[in-house]
Specification:
The protein has ten helices and six strands. It is α+β, with helices and mostly antiparallel strands. The chain has a single domain, classed as H-NOX domain, CATH 3.90.1520. This is Divinyl protochlorophyllide a 8-vinyl-reductase.
Amino acid sequence: MERNNFPKMLKMLSAPNTPAGVIGPNALTQFLDPIDRQCGPDVRKTLLKTASIAALPDMSGLIPEGPVARFHQAVRRTLPHFAEQLCRQAGTGTADYVLQHRIPKPAQFVLRHLPPPVSAKLLAKAIARNAWTFSGSGQFQISSKDPLVLKLFDNPLIAGEVSQAPICFWNTAVFERLYQVLVNPAARVKETSCMACGDPSCDFEVTFR
């Protein structure tokens, strides 16, 4: 496969004319199994009720970001000792869903076989084209080349939150899993700034150990 065909594949991943204020359903559904395993179905039902979610999405399209944000906040507030682990498991599950259902296999093949610096930049562009799936009404930017930094402004999943340390564990896990599978297994993603800490954006630094 010719490398110059890859930009066409990136266009296949885009979602033009996406309504504002919606997000991918995996931002909610990928939490359910980890919560059931870790805390039990009763806790899962309580969290859904707290977030005023009466029915689960059917995975056929995007869903309003508001209930999803309330659910993320309920997880952090109700299960402070388990929240990071649950968010990371849900983020990893989200990335695996994207790999299985959203990124064409030929594009994945090309990414894995390009030089990592080139692959990392191309993946960042693909993520930017699909930012609505994880950022909702937030704004996504690619900030730096070395190290690569993914920036998220107005992340709705942490709106109104206040924390002494970054709390975007779900986003971090999504990015890290994608980079580990498609670029380099040694990829690590760290949230270096967070709006919950008073920073202007949530910044995710991508490195390769």
